[in-house]
Amino acid sequence: MKYLTLFAVIAVVLLISSNAQAQTSAQERAATLRSQLAELESRQAGFTTQLQELEEKLKPENIERSLAGVGSTRPEDLREQKRRQLEIERDGVKKQLDLLTASRTRLEASIARADADAYRQSAAPQAVAAPTTTTGVSPNTQPGNTVAPAAPTRRTRRRRTRRTRPSTSLNTYPQITQITPIQQA
Predict the structure, then answer these.
(1) E strand or H helix that includes residue 98
(2) Which pTM value belongs to this model?
(3) Which of 74, 76, 117, 170 is least enclosed, having the fewest CB within 10 Å?
């Protein structure tokens, strides 16, 4: 019986520690995801700034101004080449921004799940073990205590063996001593 009680106490301690570790890991996961989101937002801000600069450089007057010091027999070809180069760069930045937006959406959903898991684990009732008697009822059970009583242990019934009484005589049938005649009417 003492081994059973010891086993129950060890099981409850392990359960409580695993719940605490799960709650801590859910909180740590949420914190890690938040740091990833902050990093992603800073990268997204950098790409947004870069996109605005490229849009500004793509204006025809700014392309002409950037090529003003370059002498060529075909200035229109140079302007077209510069415009294509800036458009390719702009399209790449837009794709990066789209990828970052999708990643941000996934990260925000993951953060919401991690927060919900951490809340669920913190709101879950903690199992507390109380010593039990042989009947399976806790001696410390008080009204208002939210701890569920321990489940009763299953006992196996022993089959009772039928004992026979020792007889006082060898012959157990009653002795017939006298025969009475049957009267006819």
Answers:
(1) helix 75-123
(2) 0.52
(3) 170
- CA gap 90, 92 in Å, rounded: 5
Rounded Cα distance between 66 and 79, Å, is: 9
pLDDT in tens, the chain (185 residues): 555 555 555 655 555 555 455 556 888 888 999 999 999 999 999 999 999 999 999 999 998 888 887 777 788 888 899 999 999 999 999 999 999 999 999 999 999 999 998 888 888 766 554 555 455 545 554 444 455 556 666 666 666 666 665 555 555 555 556 666 666 65
Q: Tokens 């947004």 correspond to what residue?
A: 48
Residue ranges per structural domain of the chain: 2-123
Nearest of 27, 19, 117 to residue 35 by alpha carbon? 27
- CB burial of 101-133 (b: ≥16 within 10 Å; e: otherwise) equals eeebeebeebbeebbebbeebeeeeeeebbebe
CA 57 to chain centre: 50
| Burial group, residue 19, by CB count within 10 angstroms (0-12, 13-18, 19+) | middle
Number of Cβ atoms within 10 Å of the Cβ of 86: 20
Question: Residue length, the chain?
Answer: 185
